[in-house]
Design a protein that fits this description.
single chain; mainly alpha; two-stranded antiparallel sheet; 14 helices; 4 strands
C-alpha cells in the first residue's frame, strides 16, 4: 500500500505538469486551429523567468568576513542581504513565489507578441506549415536561452519552509510515508490553475464568447464581436498557464535549454490521447498518463520489462488511437 500511495502521488504531480502544458496546447488548437510546436519552449521560458529572478535577487558584492580575525578575508554576499539583513535573506529564499508574480505579465507579453507577430499569419495555412514555423521558433528560443544561460542545468531552490517532506501516510492510516512539500504544492497549484481556466471559459461572458467562437467563428463575428482580439488574449492566457507551470516546476527539475523539447513531445502525446482541442481531455489524459508512467517506473516492473517506463505513454497513445481515433474526449 505504501508503494502504491507513493506512485500515485508521483504520478499526480508529474501529471499536473503534463496537464498544464497540454491544456495550453488544446486551448490554442481549439480556438485558433494552430498546432503550436513552440509550446514546450514557452514552458522553458517560464522556468528561466524563475532562474533570472533568482539571479537578480542573488547579485552579490565582496564584503569583509568578520568571522575570520587573524587575517583579512572577503566573501561574496548578496546585495539584499547586505542592505536588509534577514529581510533580504527572506526575499531571496522566496525567489520562486516572487517569480510567479513576475512571470504573469512577462509570459502574457511574450504570448501576445508571438501571436501578433508570427502565428496569425498561419491561421489559414496547413498544419504542416504551422508545425514547421513554430518548431523553428522553438529552436531559436532554445538557442537564445543556451547563449545566455549555458547548456548546463541551473538549480532553483524552493522556499526553505517547504523544502522538507511531510508525513502523508497518517492521512491514510499508514506509517513512515513522507513526500516532498513542494511536489504537493505543485499538485495543488496545477489543480487550481486548471480549475481557474475552466471557470474562466464556462462562467464568464468573455469565456462563453470564446467557446462560441471555437465552434463557429464566422457567426460570432457577424454579431459584431471582435473574436480575433479575444483569441489573441486566449493565446496569451495559454502562454501564461504554461509559463507558470515552468516556474513552479523549477525546484523539482533544474531548468536547462533542452527541457522544452522534452516536455513538448510528451504534452503532444497527452493532447492526442485526450482528444485534439478537448480541454477536459487534455487535463484528464495528463493525470492519467502521469500515473501510468509512475507505476511503470517501479523497479519490480522494470526488472520484468526493462525500459517500459520510457515507452508506456506512447504505447497507450497507439492503443487509444487504434480503438478511439479522436481520443478519449475528442469531438466527432
Amino acid at each position: 500500500m505504501e508503494a502504491i500511495l507513493l506512485q500515485i502521488l508521483n504520478g499526480l504531480d508529474k501529471g499536473g505538469a503534463y496537464a498544464l502544458i497540454a491544456l495550453g496546447l488544446s486551448l490554442v488548437f481549439g480556438t485558433l486551429g494552430v498546432v503550436n510546436f513552440a509550446h514546450g519552449a514557452l514552458f522553458m521560458l517560464g522556468a528561466f523567468v524563475a532562474v533570472s529572478v533568482q539571479s537578480l535577487l542573488t547579485l552579490s558584492m565582496r564584503v569583509r568576513d568578520t568571522s575570520i580575525t587573524f587575517f583579512e578575508a572577503y566573501k561574496e554576499t548578496p546585495y539584499l542581504e547586505v542592505w536588509w539583513g534577514d529581510t533580504g535573506r527572506a526575499i531571496i529564499d522566496y525567489a520562486v513565489p516572487i517569480s510567479i508574480v513576475i512571470a504573469i505579465p512577462v509570459m502574457l507579453l511574450i504570448g501576445v507578441a508571438m501571436e501578433r507577430g508570427l502565428v496569425r499569419f498561419f491561421y489559414k495555412r496547413d498544419h504542416a506549415d504551422q508545425i514547421l514555423v513554430t518548431f523553428g521558433l522553438a529552436i531559436v528560443l532554445q538557442e537564445i536561452v543556451k547563449a545566455f544561460f549555458g547548456a548546463n542545468p541551473i538549480p532553483v531552490s524552493a522556499p526553505e519552509v517547504v523544502a522538507t517532506s511531510v508525513d502523508v501516510g497518517t492521512m491514510f492510516g499508514l506509517q513512515g510515508i513522507t513526500y516532498p512539500w513542494w511536489r504537493l504544492i505543485y499538485l495543488g497549484f496545477s489543480l487550481l490553475i486548471i480549475g481557474g481556466v475552466f471557470a474562466f471559459l464556462h462562467y464568464t461572458t468573455f469565456g462563453m464568447v470564446v467557446r462560441a467562437g471555437m465552434h463557429d467563428r464566422e457567426t460570432v463575428g457577424l454579431l459584431g464581436i471582435n473574436i480575433q482580439k479575444r483569441f489573441t488574449i486566449v493565446f496569451g492566457l495559454a502562454t501564461v498557464v504554461v509559463g507558470l507551470a515552468g516556474v513552479m516546476y523549477t525546484p523539482i527539475l533544474s531548468p536547462d535549454c533542452h527541457m522544452g523539447m522534452e516536455f513538448l513531445v510528451l504534452s503532444f502525446v497527452v493532447v492526442v490521447v485526450g482528444g485534439m482541442g478537448s480541454l477536459p481531455g487534455a487535463a484528464a489524459a495528463g493525470f492519467l498518463l502521469g500515473i501510468l508512467q509512475s507505476f511503470f517506473s517501479m523497479n519490480e516492473i522494470k526488472s520484468i520489462l526493462p525500459g517500459i517506463d520510457q515507452i508506456i505513454i506512447y504505447l497507450v497513445a497507439v492503443f487509444i488511437l487504434l480503438v478511439r481515433p479522436r481520443g478519449l474526449m475528442g469531438r466527432d
